[in-house]
Amino acid sequence: xxxxxxxxxxxxxxxxxxxxxxxxxxxxxxxxxxxxxxxxxxxxxxxxxxxxxxxxxxxxxxxxxxxxxxxxxxxxxxxxxxxxxxxxxxxxxxxxxxxxxxxxxxxxxxxxxxxxxxxxxxxxxxxxxxxxxxxxxxxxxxxxxxxxxxxxxxxxxxxxxxxxxxxxxxxxxxxxxxxxxxxxxxxxxxxxxxxxxxxxxxxxxxxxxxxxxxxxxxxxxxxxxxxxxxxxxxxxxxxxxx
Length: 242
What we know:
- The protein is mainly β.
- The chain has one helix and twelve strands.
């Protein structure tokens, strides 16, 4: 042992290398603790999804005649980035293309009419995420909720009518002849959940549902209130970064 406290001889805890071996210090393992790897930080996840929208509208009216609106099946595509805040909580930033609308069928003055409203949006959402523990290393589940902003990209109305055995069909853009006076954006609340199944350390598949509750009246001119209601069922791929 030299005066500096370093030894190059084999001793307890020092295997033929220059190692600090201060007698009575209780710190023989200190260098190994310093060299231990730090805990792995939670990974950011990037996702791409696609799926079906079951879209309809909620109608509020004081009129005696209110058409019955039914849901229409449309599509959605999206991208997302999930940023972990802790092992339990995270934030998901999502954006994509979402098709919405509704269908109504009624009889008026002897004519059977079926009309379909199709409105397409670029939708952005900021969702809080709660991760749920599941057994197994490859499967995880989560719940999400937060605000969603939708910017209209297109709007069309089609109608089919049968009157005295004759069929009529009309297809118009919403701006043609002022079919519907509307706002070009919609604000809503979104909530849902999903599961992820890991295929490897970095890649996985996802399955989820999301319900978007529109808050704004999409028909500004009419006294009736029309608000979007959309249930999205999506599948996708998830890639972990870092």
